[in-house]
Amino acid sequence: GWQPVGIAGQARAGAPARPGPLRGMRWASCPEHGLSWAGFLRRSPPRSSPSRLALCAAYRCDAWSRRLRTAGYSDSVFQNKIVDQCEKLQLQSAAITKYMAEVLPGKNQSALSAASWAREVVIQRLIFVRNVCENEEQRLLEKVHTEEERTHQSILTQRAHWTESLQKLAALRTYLVDMITNLDDHGLVHAEQEIFERTEAAEGILKPQESEKLNFNQKCVQSPLLHQLWASAVLSLEEVHVDEKTISPLLTLSEDKKTLAFSPKKTKPYPDCPERFDHWPNALGTKAFHKGTHAWRIRVDKSCAYKLGISYGSLQRKGPGNAARLGYNPFSWVFSRYDKEFRFSHNSCHQAVELVKCPAQVGVLVDLDGGEVLFYDPTSCVILHSHRETFTAPIYPVFAVADQSISLVQ
């Protein structure tokens, strides 16, 4: 077999046989002069022996000449290339061997350490979050219990007060009936002062009126932490689509049905239908939500004028009046931006929303059973605004844009 001698002069064990005319030749030293075969092919004899240098430089080594003649080589250029390639292969093999022996074990240990650290971080953070959630749960449940006790005590106090009032009124009525029954006109005139005083006391008993103290305060369970965790858990669960029959002529819908773009001129002729908005740049979603929790996201970073939220299907579609203007009627709840001003609007009541920066996306989350609509920044995990409402009809996602475009995030 063909066993080349390495750079250090060591034969590489197990190397494959060299095909071609060099088959059977060994990568060994000259038996007469100790000159290596590689050196001979390179015409570079060993430097340590002047006599060998002279001899081999003249190429009069009979043993190697016989080998060359047997191999059929008269030109040394090709042989030199073979030697170069063999040396490159050996260097490449040495580099791979070193990489496997030194680098890979270190990488493996580093990966094990990094995975162990990451696993520990996940466990520790989840333990921390779990503890925080448990503490928040306990705090909120205590607030619920306290509010329940307060409401119950207020009801008991009211019950006792009005029971006492009923007794006073009943006693006064009985007294007046007795006076009328048992006294003549002279006696009634004589008892006029007493009757007046008792009647005046009864007039101080007012009629019952509605009191917020008798209602359970739902705000006692408001928690930014709970809102953020809840919003993060359910946001983007819903795939929302724009109802093309409702799109205003001032808007155009992209081919992928996700982007609404504003056009100040009604450039695209839409067929008129009862569902379409004909004045305000509005559009509704296709699907109505009847119960449960629903959420979707809209990319708004390209627009400085938009409205996002929910509305009843009974929202007016035609005309320039407030009945079709989002946030200016009892049928719509929207979060809006105009330039750098943000606000929440419902039934012409506007509440300013102070933000540190403009959100790139806005999430809309509605809990129909719990009676709440929430606007959320999924990027910074910030609750933009929340509003409690008792919804009496199915709601639709609603959109409006008056600058550039907004896009649904699926």
Question: What's the topology here?
Answer:
Elements: H1 37-41, H2 50-57, H3 62-71, H4 77-182, H5 185-190, H6 192-203, H7 224-234, E1 251-253, E2 259-262, E3 282-284, E4 293-299, E5 305-312, E6 332-338, E7 341-346, E8 349-352, E9 361-367, E10 372-377, E11 382-388, E12 395-401, E13 405-409
Antiparallel strand pairs: 1-2, 2-13, 3-12, 4-9, 4-13, 5-6, 5-12, 6-7, 7-8, 9-10, 10-11
Describe this structure in words.
- Residues 1-29 and 35-61 have low confidence and may be disordered.
- Strand 9 and strand 10 (372-377) form a beta hairpin.
- The strands form 2 sheets. The protein has a 7-stranded antiparallel sheet with strand order 1-2-13-4-9-10-11, covered by helices on one side.
- Helices cover 39% and strands 18% of the residues.
- It has helices at residues 37-41, 50-57, 62-71, 77-182, 185-190, 192-203, 224-234, and strands at residues 251-253, 259-262, 282-284, 293-299, 305-312, 332-338, 341-346, 349-352, 361-367, 372-377, 382-388, 395-401, 405-409.
- It is elongated.
- Helix 4 packs antiparallel against helix 6.
- It has 410 residues and is an alpha+beta fold.
- Among the domains are: 139-210; 222-409, SPRY domain (Jelly Rolls, Sandwich).
